[in-house]
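worker-3 :: picked DNA-binding protein
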Amino acid sequence: MKTLPLRLVPGADLRRELEAALAAHGVEAGFVLQGIGSLQPAVLRLAGAEATVSPAGSVELLTLAGSVGPGGSHLHASVSDAAGRVLGGHLGYGSVVHTTAEVLLALLPDWAFSREPDATTGYAELVVRQR
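worker-3 :: tokens ->
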């Protein structure tokens, strides 16, 4: 495992930048160990929901964790608004860095992640293969 600390700048799509960082290092498997910062907008899909929600205004990114791979990522985030209300869910594309995002990405060069249909869950789920 190799760690890659990242600081993402305002205007960056958080999810796309993490996937791009993985690809730039020629790696097919990674995990976000932690992430903090601010987003505007934040795009989250809540548990059991099909549609996404976007809290109004700028939000603090309290936590970010999950898997990153070339076939898709599975990232969970918790954010808080100006009143301190916390909301969490799956991080979607279009979650844009407001002031900064500081993320620690673990690169796993000996492994490859893909997403394949799982008959049990009905979703494309993580498949882990050794390279």
